[in-house]
Write a structure and sequence with these properties.
Elements lengths: L1 H17 L27 H10 L5 H9 L4 H5 L6 E2 L4 E4 L2 E5 L2 E5 L8 E4 L5 H11 L21 H14 L9 H12 L4 H8 L4 H5 L8 H13 L8 H7 L1 E4 L6 E5 L5 E5 L3
Parallel strand pairs: 6-8
Antiparallel strand pairs: 1-2, 2-5, 3-4, 7-8
Length: 278
């Protein structure tokens, strides 16, 4: 914000110099109008997520699961009602979000029009969500999934949530991790499964592809896996099975890259990947 204000002031004074209202422009600080570089976010690992869920209070563990594995915004999760979680279909419906203004909850629509969406729930967290519904959510379609413990008809206070979060992240050794970074973690995990930009955009509720691009980071250690796979490509086929035979036993999958080639990943059950041109 300061950088933009300085840039505007310098532009105004430059016009004044052009109009001969000033002899020179006093805004001469180099790089003062350049916005600061955004802090790099390191997504949580699977192990760290397990610790975070375990260390949160029992009634908030499911909140971490939804933020991370479904890549939901915190405001979206805190406004979820029983009717929004359809575990039979395996989806969570995001149609509202809550924000806090001067200590009062304000319920509105999600951040953008694309934010109204259905997000598929990874099957492995469905049992935990079902248990949360049974133990911590009141009966009735309008019951909040994560209400205040003092008044279960009111929203959970952000201060209560962040106090619990700070303790959990300390236990996980991730003092740098903000609760919003769980959404980044979920987006990164989705990208690692091979989700396209359009699929990420829909899952995250972004109105532009450019926004989804910010979340396409490889988790730490992923590059080493890629390097190992590249070495497997260079390795000769194992004795006892010809390359043709290995190809015939492989599975064929379409993958999306800028290349137009066939790639065979060497393994006990090789995968033949078709890469269409863009």
């Amino acid at each position: 914000m300061n950088a933009r204000a300085y840039a505007l002031l310098r532009a105004i004074l430059s016009t004044a110099v052009t109009d001969e209202l000033l002899a020179s422009n006093p805004c001469r600080i180099r790089s003062a109008s350049n916005p600061p570089t955004k802090k790099e976010i390191h997504p949580a690992t699977i192990t760290e997520l397990d610790v975070l869920v375990r260390e949160m209070p029992n009634h908030l563990g499911a909140l971490v699961l939804l933020c991370a594995w479904c890549a939901l915004r915190v405001g979206e999760v805190l406004e979820l009602r029983r009717r929004d979680l359809d575990l039979n279909r395996g989806v969570v419906k995001v149609t509202r979000a809550v924000s806090w203004v001067r200590g009062q909850p304000i319920v509105g629509t999600p951040k953008s029009a694309a934010g109204t969406r259905e997000v598929s729930v990874p099957p492995h967290i469905v049992p935990a969500l079902q248990q949360h519904l049974e133990k911590h959510v009141r009966p009735g379609a309008d019951a909040l999934l994560f209400p205040s413990m003092r008044d279960r008809q009111r929203h959970l206070q952000p201060t209560v949530l962040h106090t619990a979060w700070r303790k959990a992240r300390a236990a996980a050794g991730r003092e740098d991790l903000r609760i919003h970074d769980l959404r980044h973690t979920g987006a990164t995990l989705a990208a690692m499964t091979g989700a396209t930009l359009a699929e990420l955009q829909a899952r995250l509720g972004h109105s532009t592809v450019a926004a989804a691009l910010r979340y396409q980071h490889a988790a730490q250690g992923r590059d080493a896996e890629i390097a190992a796979k590249l070495s497997e490509l260079a390795s000769p086929p194992s004795s006892g099975m010809s390359s043709d035979a290995r190809s015939r036993t492989g599975e064929v999958r379409d993958i999306t890259t800028p290349l137009d080639m066939w790639v065979i990943f060497g393994s006990s059950a090789p995968v033949l990947c078709r890469c269409p041109s863009r």
